[in-house]
């Protein structure tokens, strides 16, 4: 296997300290450890390690509402994720960045990143949650941009995954969104059908 440079174990230690501080509810301390780890991975020229370190710091800042800084770190991580073994990291970083861009109203940027996430997810198994979130994000961005046919296609794919998984709560949300899209397209009967399916699901789950 590859020879691990001794400093990389130091970077692992910094990562562990960062995670421990997060778990203890000390975000400022966690940020310091994760920044130190990121800097060390960069110095080592460890691209996969740097990608993960930028990603974890981005998730921390994203959760604290510091979306501008988080977006920069996701952007830093993306080109460093390489190869099929890092596809999930790439898919998640692109999804998270798309989510920030979508909230800021950058629909073209969001669409590009959601698609990049989707492409990275091809061939990944057992990550239906991320797939559904990505497709739903694409549908939301398409709806806002007035691309209603595209929005409906993405939502139909979401619904198919959630029907297979029997995820009732998510299906209700998707059916509501499908109803909105149908109404926006001037298809009232279709909109009513989606709402009816929604109500039936609600009553089935005993709500």
What is the strand and helix layout of this fold?
Elements: H1 6-23, H2 27-44, H3 47-63, H4 67-77, H5 87-103, H6 107-121, H7 128-144, H8 148-165, H9 168-184, H10 188-204
Helix pairs in contact: 1-2, 2-3, 3-4, 4-5, 5-6, 5-7, 6-7, 7-8, 8-9, 9-10
Descriptive report:
By secondary structure, this protein is an all-alpha fold. It is built from ten helices and no strands. It has helices at 6-23, 27-44, 47-63, 67-77, 87-103, 107-121, 128-144, 148-165, 168-184, 188-204. Helix 5 (87-103) packs parallel to helix 7 (128-144) and helix 8 packs antiparallel against helix 9. Mean pLDDT is 92; it is low at 1-5.
* Succession of helices and strands: HHHHHHHHHH
Largest sheet, if any? none
Q: Output the structural class.
A: mainly alpha
Helical percent range? over 70%
- Terminal-residue CA separation: 54 Å
The whole-number mean of residue pLDDT values reads 92
Shape: elongated
- The number of distinct β-strands equals 0
Proportion in β-strands: under 5%
The quaternary state of the protein chains shown equals single chain
Number of helices, where a helix is a run of at least 4 consecutive DSSP H or I residues: 10
Overall radius of gyration: 20 Å
Report the uncertain regions: 1-5
Question: Features of this protein?
Answer:
207 residues
Provide a short characterization of the protein structure:
The chain has 207 residues and is an all-alpha fold. The chain contains ten helices and no strands. Mean pLDDT is 92; it is low at 1-5.
